[in-house]
Every structure is written in C-alpha cells, then in structure tokens.
Write the structure tokens for this entry.
Amino acid sequence: MKKIYLFFFLISLYFASLVIFGSLVRHAAFKGPFSDNIIIKLSDSMSKIPSNLKTYIFGGDLAIQKKDRLNISLKKKGLKIFINENLEEYILVSKYFLDENSFKLQLIDVLNNSIIYTWPQKRFTSTLSESSGPGRYTFEHSMLLDGGDILTTTGGEPIMKIDICGNKIWENDMNTHHSIEIDKDKNIWAPIYLNEKKKLHGQTLQYHDGIGKIDINTGTTLFQKSLYDILIENNLFDLMGNSYMGEDPLHLNDIEPVLEDGNFWKEDDLFLSLRNISLVLLYRPSTNKIIWYKFGPWRHQHDVDIIDKNKIAIFNNNTQLGIKSVNRNSEILVYDFDNSRVGNIFDKLFVKHKIKTYYEGLFEKIDDKSIYVEEQENGRIIKGNMDGNIIWEYIWDAQIKWSRFYNNNNFKKVGNLSETVKNIKNNKCS
C-alpha cells in the first residue's frame, strides 16, 4: 500500500512541477511583472534548450537555411555569367558552409569567376562566446576597406576592424546589428541594441533599438541615441505605440548616411528603415529632428538608398501579413520627394525571375541600366538589367548574409579597388 501511495505522490509531484514550470515560462514569455526574477529567467532559459540544440545542429529559420528549404536548390551553385560585359567587379559575401557548419567571408572576382580570398575568422572569433564563435559568426554586412582591412560583425555583437590576416585592429563595445555604412568623413553608422530596458504600454521590449556612430580609425564611439527617445522627443510616439503589438516594435535594419546636400535633405542627415512598422524616416542628428517620414506602400522593407537629389529607393520585401511569405515578388520602390509619388524600377527583372525574400535582402543601383540584388532567403545574388535579363547570377546552397558589390566607381568612397585587390592577393599571412 505504501508503494502505491508513493507512486501517486511522485506522479502528483511530477505534474505539479510541470504546471509550476509552465507557469514560470509563460510568465517570462508574456513579460510579466516578475520576468526579471532569476528563477523565472532560469526556467525560460531551460525551456529553450531543445530549440537551441536544434538550431545549433540543424539550423533554424533565421540562422541557417538548408538545401531542401531553398526554392532554387536544384540550380548548380556558383557563378554563372549570361551576358559577358568584361567589367572588373567583385562580391564580398558571407556564406554558410553546410559541410563545415560555419560561415565564411569571401571576396569573389566576377570577371575571372574565382575566389580571391577567404578571411581566417578563427583568428579573431576564437575568444567569442559559443553563440557567436567560429561556427556562428555571420560576418553581417562586412565592408572592404582600402588596402584590404574589413569591418565586420555578427548580429547583436560589436563591430570589429580586421586586417587581411585576420588580426583584430580594434573592437567597439556597442551591440550592433544589420547594416554597416560610412558617412562623408568615413565614420561608421550602424543600428545598435541598448542595454537599458524599455517598456511600451507596460510591456518590456525584447530589443531597445538605437543608432551608433563609430570612428573608423580607432573604433571609438562618437554618438549613440535611443531610437525610442528620438521618436518621443519628436512627438511621434504613436508611430510605434499605436501601430504594433509585440516586443520588437521598430526593428531598425538600415541606416543610410547622406553624403551631400540634396533638394530635400542635408549632408550628415540619416535615412532610417524600421521594418516592423514599415516606416522610413529622415533624421537630422545635429538638431535631433525627424525631417520626414512615411509608412508604405513598402512592407517590411530593407535597405534604403539615395539615388539622386530628389529620390530614394527602397528594397520592398513586400511580405504578406504572415511575414514569412511574399506577395508575388519583392521589388524596388522609388519615392520622389518632388511630387510625393512612388514608382517601381527594374520591375521586369523581379517579376520575370521571381525575386523574393520575406526577410533581409538588399540592392544597389549600379547605373540607370543595371542593378545588384541579394535574394537572401534563396541564397542568390543577381546582377540584372532594365530589360529583365540576368547579367550574372551567383547561387549558394545555404544562407548568405548581407553581401556587397564592388566596382571601381562605388569603391572610390573608401579607396582604390584595383590596388586593394592586388594587396589582398599578395598578402604575406601565414
């Protein structure tokens, strides 16, 4: 009889433990008033163990895209040239290698269809935590600098400046994410996460978005500002407070510094892309003023570029309400400040070749006839033209992360491309 009592006691204790554990996890998930309690935080962390193991071993939706999930996985990976333009062009791209369970950063020569260099990441990532160590380091939106140094980061970690041999020159202490861009003085602008907790209508937010400016030579922080504070101080709290439910209301994914005066903006202004409320705004740090803002018609957009003195172009992911699907195809929308109209460029290319990615993605308008596009979800990079033809296409069998296109014209803002490539090829690294 005692054994039966003991059995039912243990079963009851087991189910009671499950109920208590589930309640603690639920409290943490819904950001309850005691969600910062160490016991609740520990319970929440324990509940994520299976998911973290799955992501670490097999990859996850936003970590590693497997071959069988890619819409174009049947195509042969690598570079294929359809129209030979005989131009000196390069791709700097972070790619996930399925067989090695690791991202690598490579510089690819398009003209000669060859890999020029692979940066030795273990030299500067070996001391990082397991979550962002050699296997998880993504080289997010890395930038090639004059002579062969690079700026690089992985999501939510500091930006580092690395030399050709993989030696760390400096490391900033701000937690950066998404885009890395430079202004007219070659200082770095990047989205950042601030450590201070923020609440929106009583809910503690998962991310506290901000903007950060870094000295490119020393890695010193020159400026940082909470994006929430910017909106509140400009009496625009309702842009986030009344248009989104959740714990990531802004999701800043691109900062585009203004390099010279236009007809509607000034040098040193910043265009900001806020994905989760489909908002693009123009901010002037010198006066802490939001000069202009607009919701849509883009949806969950990435990558804002200035294309002339009156117009900006936006990579419109064009996602449906479920966020993980695209309405027909992604597109490049152009907003004309002169007449407040929105147009579409390179539409033939996007429709004909079904270019779509529900998250991330980027572009660069090379000239009036050609464009560079990264279709991240499908591991594809394209150079195409206004007639809807692909000039060349680069396919990878896993995820790529925020690549860059270089030619002699666009590299001028940082240095000499031909000499930089020669320096990389002739490196003396052991």
Notes: Residues 54-68 have pLDDT under 50 and may be disordered. The helical segments are 2-29, 38-47, 49-58, 122-125, 227-233, 238-241, 347-352, 417-425.
